[in-house]
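Q: My labmate handed me this sequence with no annotations at all. I'd like to see what the chain might look like in three dimensions before we decide whether it's worth expressing. Could you predict it?
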Amino acid sequence: MSKTVINSHFDADGISSAVLLMKAKGLKLKNTKVLFPKELGFGVATGKIDYMLDMHPVDDNLKCTVYDHHENPPYPPKEKRGYKLIYDEVPTALVIWNKHKDTIPESEWFKVLVGITGDQVPEVIPPIIIKKNPELLERITYGDFSMHKFEQLSSPINAAARFGFHELAFEELYKAKCPNDIIKNPVLLKYKSLQSALKTQIRKSWALDEIPKPFIIKNWCQVAIIDTEFGMNGYMASSMAGDENITTICINKQTGAISIRGTFTSLLIEGLTKHGITAGGHPRAAGGHIPKEKTYKDVIKIIKNIL
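A: Here is what I predict for the chain of 307 residues:
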């Protein structure tokens, strides 16, 4: 018997989407192959697949079922695509829950919030999930501030993924029985510690002028350059946009990955796309990649001319 093949995005929403779809369909680990094809590019299928999650397929003729919420680039009309599309403008984990909540065990519903908080849209959390899991409203104290427990669900998953351990994050989430199995998971917390250490190292490299310091363009956009083999650009962009209350685009000089966070995300997506830089995502959070024929300096020139 051939295995069911799932290709999913390699962030918290994609990873939780894969877990929820398996729970909804009654798929078992031994009969399912879950792939996070980061090295192939966003939306590229690894051969024949059954499901693509949280990604826009590159091939319009792909034969599978797609669950997604990305609005950029726009999807072709139904008659021009080979796949079945289940789409909504909420995180893909919630798209799957909305479609299949009758077959997803209630004990698994808290995992929907991994995708929702990972995509930074807590306002779409279904109240029924909180009612079924009141512990999600408990507050966890960190030094001088505290956060709801649900706000901490995505960070351990994303931390492991940023260091390339997508499968590990998926496995830990798949077997989690309660929120604490994620938040206090020693395996995942190790990567949160590594993430914090690398953030400090990146800021030190700016202070020592080892790479260009972050700078602001025309009072509307902050540009930050990092140089690491790991997927830290999204984490740094989110942190800086939140701390400094300005739209931030973080470019990884080593990998070519781009992350955008903040009010003018859609404007940056549009401007970059017009100049051949692959970019897409959501109104306040997006990503992209620099093509081989361009450098991070080319991207900066484009940004300077958007406004």
